[in-house]
Amino acid sequence: RIAYAARLPLSDQFHPPAAIMGASPDLNIDPNTPKIIILGYKFCLTSISSMCAEGATYPIDFTKTRLQLQGEAGFTGTKFSFFGMMQNVAKTEGVSGLYSGFTPALARHIPYTGFRAIGYEYIRAFFCGKDVVNAPFYAKALAGMTAGAIGQAIAVPCDLIKVRMQADGRLVAMGKLEKPRYTGLMDAFAKIKAEEGIVGFYKGATPAIQRAALVNLGELTTYDSAKTYIVENMGIGRDDLRCHLLSAFCSGFVASLCSTPADVAKSRIMSQKPAADGSVMYKGTFHCWVKTVNEEGFFALYKGFFPGWFRLAPWQLVFWVTYERLRIVAGLGSFK
Asked: pLDDT tens, 271-284?
């Protein structure tokens, strides 16, 4: 069915005469293809694109999480800069230590990015109406935040495992753990279910969902709006690599600016280990923020901001360039 697009004249491949099934007029696959198959194509493409982006940038995300955890109550040892932290991890845990938690990170992106990227197109239509290109920013923002929040709600268990596996090497070095809690993704699922029950998979769900909503305010909404602005005001084509690069740069910055405080709370709440009496250091997002500001100062809420930005910008670039190109090759047309 995808090969149907290859038989079209070149002009029709990118400017077809009419929309199919109410989708984008750039859709160039067999008009008899069921909508569920089209959704399946998009889901597979978002999964592939997100795994490429995650693989390329994961060590930066790992280092960012470690930076967010250093300095909290009970922390002992040297405080590292971004590159110092990365070098220390490679020295003490091996280069492979920079990929601790990589498997659950990949597993998380399959439902998370799959839903938010695809869901955004449909949720945006609900908030923005038929003219999505010229819709106001606030309508796109509501769509982006909604898609991100729902996607993260689905993916919280994998996110929890990822954060814990990222933090365990540090806890072992501090003497708080004899060895990492989990040997892998499936081992983590089994142990958390046995020790904490189903509810254990959703510890830190609130800040994780808040962060996802704010990240997608930056990622989806800013990318969408920046792309429209660049096309209309800078004379750069919608499918031009420069357009994707500039849009990704803008979306990465806004996403980091909006989401870092929630990201700090998420990392600390998900990674904390209950004391012998069952008490925990952080009771929730707001309590974590207040405690962090009181003990470490306001800017502690922005620990990991620059690594987060340095990660999100290339993550966005790899994801969107890969996704857009795969959409075109598959006959689904460029993202609009």
From this structure: 787 877 778 888 88
